[in-house]
Design goal:
CATH superfamily of the largest domain in chain A: MetI-like
CATH class of one domain in chain B: Mainly Alpha
CATH topology of the largest domain in chain A: MetI-like fold
Oligomer: heterodimer
Order of helices and strands of chain A: HHHHHHHHHHHHHHHH
Strand content of chain B: 5-15%
Largest sheet of chain A: none
CATH architecture of the largest domain in chain A: Orthogonal Bundle
Distance between the termini of chain B: 26 Å
CATH class of the largest domain in chain A: Mainly Alpha
Shape of chain A: globular
Strand content of chain A: under 5%
CATH topology of one domain in chain B: MetI-like fold
Amino acid sequence: MTSNQIKRPLALQILIYGFVLFWFILAAFPFMWTMWGSFKVELDFFSKLDWTNVFSGVRTQVVYGKSFTGAGYDGAWIQEEFWRAFLNTAIVCFCTVLTSLTLATLGGYALSRSGFRYSFWLLIIALVFRALPPITLVSGYLQPFYDWNVWGTLPTTIIVLVAINQPFTLWMLHSFFQTIPKELDESAKVDGCSQFQAFRHVIIPVMWPGVITAGLFSFLLAYNDFAVTGILLSQENQTMVPKIASFMGTTQTEGNIMFAVAAVVSSIIPLFILVMFFQRQLVSGLTAGAVKG
Amino acid sequence: MKHKTFFWFFLPTALAMFLFIALPLTSIVSQSLHTPHDAVLVVVESCDPFGCKSETTIDHEASKQIKEEQPKGKWVGFQIYTDRNHLAFKEVGELWENKTNLIDFVSGLNNLPFYRAMGFTITFVLVVTPLVILFGLIIALAVNSLHRHLKGLMVFFSLLPMIVTPLVGSLILFWMIDSRGIIGSGLQELFADPNLSLKASTGLTWITLIVYGVWHSAPFAFIVFYAGLQTVPQETIEAAMIDGASRLQQTYHVVVPHLSPLVAFVALIQLMDNFRVFEPIVGFSASAHATSLSWIIWNDIGQEIRLMSSAATTSVLTIIGVIILLMPVLIRTWREFNPQK
């Protein structure tokens, strides 16, 4: 491998570095640009005359006397009550992750230890459910939820998100549990444990890496969801993503678009932190299903 | 594991999926076959010294009674499926009869909401999926040849476009391509056309959405292929080298075949995810030029008057589409599980 690398001709080397740089800019620049711009006024962030205004902050200086301003954040978080949406997102994500992991751990473990034909069919059904766009199901919920008068509340949305996450989490944990040798719980059963005791005392202590990975993806699904939360939540219970979408509709007046920019940046920060700390788990999760083919 | 133990372990997740996935499915099928009842109208004749007038009013009592007797609404069978907003049999038939050539027919179809959405959805799936695979593969090959420390950094930044909320990611790009944003005004200068706007024409909007789709999904393909590259057998590479294979030939004949199962995996996931394309259309405010199946459903139920039957019908049609899309995979899995009967 190393000898292979040394012999690489210069032209190829340049090509590779050029392409990597290109992709790096493509992937990272939009975020950097928007984060930087969120501290400016609208006329700087969207400056038709001179794009360097964003760096110098000419207009921002005119309005606020300095080249950075937290006005967008102030407007979004306090005036438009984005903090409420942030709290709602926190509640929804926490409950969704906790519940879907509990259900899927039991289910995924059972699937990985059962060699019967129906377990194969259950996995196939879960795959089909995974492929359904969530919005197609949402129209099925609305009428019953109105009738029972549970529309618009956080618990309803949490339950729906748990259910929609189930197929994916189930697949992920199923393939994770298959990597834990069967002999482990079988020997516990020989020693007189029931299946549940074997699970409790032998599997639970070793399952955390897989559960954390599945939890991350379950979190991302709940955090990023728009189809379900956008329709099933009432105005005051909105989470961050539908709240941002509603900014687009109502705050087209000048200056208020920066509220939306600030809100967008605020919603990216938690994801940045997540990637920073859990990069390895995310990568292993993405490839978990793939390596088995 | 015994059947009984399996049952208890699997019950919670099965219950969740049954109640909130399987039941809603039956609910949308039933909704798509019914419409809300028409209001019962009564003609009331009211007479006063100046003569008699007849007024038409809604009979609330009777309307309520009908609603209680048949809570699902009026049975209409497949009528909603064939109306203008869905499969539009009548309109398509007319178009086919009156067509002068095929292009005429296709542009006529484009005026029917369902076919318009179908057209964009399928184009999106068919263009984005191969591009994502190709682009992901190139990134993976390039990053894999970098220095160890750079690799970690690249993986970190590459994850961002994929991890970020689709709506938020598309908004970020939307602001940049705005005619006052950095890319938008940059393009205007590049083409020396001050009126150039990526939002104005259908073609450019489609291209924008497709670029967004590739940007959003390429990291996924990259990560999967990158992991696959770590397991390429070095002996085969060396053997190919000794046989005189050039660098390109080694990549083409050894590395790519090694990755081919992963290509199938990425393609499957991408087909499923691209078929539900929805958030970018909202984020880019592109609905005037491009709509998708998911978008029409959202548009139907997101309005003041919720068009439940219409949304349910589109949902059923979308689900049929998903199943057709998955068919090859399902058949393959079935064959693998049941080797020659």
